[in-house]
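## retry 2 of 3
previous attempt timed out at serialization; input unchanged, resubmitting
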Amino acid sequence: MASISDIILGQVQSAAGNIQIPSNVKDTVINGLSSSILGSLTQTATKAGGVSLLKDLFSGRTSAASSPVTALATSLFTNNILSKLNLGSAGSALTGVIPVVLGKLGGIFKDQDGDGDVDFNDIILSLQGGGVKKALGTAAAVGVASKILGGLFKKR
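## retry succeeded, writing output
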């Protein structure tokens, strides 16, 4: 069953596909990008005002490039992965993947019920009838919804 981690990993692999990453660190970099993005979403959701930041990002009110969620993911990736590797100019290109992936997630989780914002209801509706369900199937979409909501409420 697919999870939000799997969706992020797939988006990262796609977005980073044209960046020259040394083969001996490629898995570390790709997994580091994925975990930094997921960590940023989780940390943002659990802090005061964080759900509003996520709503703004997913609804398009805040661009992925200027979102505090992106800034946190970039910081996590830079401090936890890039600082330990000597990737030169590839490091800049890799941090550029983060807003691309977060922007694509915003495209998955849209305002589905027409109330002008992105909330938990919209996430569920996106997974039930949107691109994720078509790509992954109903059971996987429900698994993704459970992972998102469980992560936000610390239930697994």
